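Entry:
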Amino acid sequence: MKLFRAEQRATPPSFSLRQLGIALGVDPVSPSVGSIDEAIRDAATWACIKIKAQGCAMLPISEVRYQGSQRVVVEPSPIIRRPSNIVPARVWRFQVFASMFSDGNAFGLVSRTDSMGRPTQIELVAPEQVRERRVVDGVPQVKINNETHLLYPWGDLWHLAGEMTLAGSPFGLSPIAYGANTTGTSLAAERFGGQFFTRGGHPTGVLTVPGQPSEEQTTALKQRLMAVIAGSREPLVLPEGTSYEKMQVDPKDSQFLELMRFEVEQTCRRHGVPPSMVFGAVSGQSITYANATQADLAYLKHTLSYPIDLFEDGMNLLTPAPRSIFLDRDAILEGDPMGRLEMQIKRVQNRLRTINEVRAEDHLDDFGPEYDEPGVPADSSSRDLSLPEQLQKIYLAVDKVITANEAREIVGIDGEFTPATSPADAPDSPSDESGEQDGSDDA
């Protein structure tokens, strides 16, 4: 008789995810999450939202005004300089993007306006507090704490929709809600892995005894076995014909590593984040940093560009015309120091940047107003050269644009340089077709 009514096998038995889940009282096959707070407990979801929101919030922001064809950087408006009275501007922008990437919408109550009624400060609201989102008579409205709020400019609630906003509604779709099953499966597998080692969840072995022992005998045998394997390290003595078989479970099965890796890939796919950015390798691949610049460019192009555009458009509606808000996307593509230097040189040479702009990017003082024009100023070579630089230029000019004697005169050396091999006292002495020098070379 077997106490656990299991068939004796020569090899350790295996268990499916559902069987082990039921043993723990958890059904990991059909889980789901119902809130952002619960979803971000999943490591991949947390990492994807965090890296996208940080990548957008860290971009340098500027406000410009167009005067004809000229683009002039101006002092930022209050909504850019200090959008909240509670958190700093960069944290405020992070919260906006995090709400867009989790709920699909960012909401905020307008707390201060200018003389024209434009918001100058907006205190953001947790998206989960915003309920009953709908459009009534062409005006979007929601409820916060059972109080109805109309969206700006009809009311006091500012709103910025996220990446997936389908026709028929001004509100974006929630990546968390539409990815609830994926996130729930990952959380269930992780939770089971922890419970597997703490609560047990499965019998550790099979005790086989001959005949049909009574309930008291089986209980005594189990207690005797448990007392030995619980840590006393005493020898185990069993009656004749009694055997004990330990049940083994593969660690990969107990932790469901393949399933959890697949869920990481699914989460990254939904959020448009390369798995390597959240330190998760795709199945069969390793994490590498080859062609990092190209990877960053693809990430910017396919993942971040559109939400950045949405943010700029939303902020432009809050700033007076003809001003515009820009996030500097180039900050994402910053390479190594040498690559950055080469790019700066090319931009200046191709008249895409001024020297002072390049120095400002490196937090250095400008050279003066003459370096505010794109490209290299025509008279930039007129600066005072150091003595080694002067000597080098003079040396390179000898026999090309000046003679050796002229070079000596420039340097201030008395006397003429007239060795037998010296060139004539004129630059680029001509030679005849036969290649022979004139009589001055024979002197």
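Residues 1-30, 421-427, 429-443 have pLDDT under 50 and may be disordered.
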